[in-house]
Amino acid sequence: MLFGHILFGTMALIGAFLLEVGFRKDFQELNLIQRLGIIFTIVGMFATVAMGIYLAGNVLSAAFVAVIGILLVGFLVVPSKAKN
Description:
Blueprint: H1 2-22, H2 32-55, H3 59-77
């Protein structure tokens, strides 16, 4: 049970990261509902992982994961200056 929880949680976290990377260039073209769905998915995944790590007793790692999640959402929301 524990192994499955770790495995599927890791898959969900990687999926949230890939979702951020995949929509990086096109994020501003999405409508509000689509943008909020992506943001809530990423924030929810990283918040769940950070809370689990914190409750396990590792505050520094939880803070690290939370900062990574915040940075990923920041990179996604701020418009890219790259020219196509």
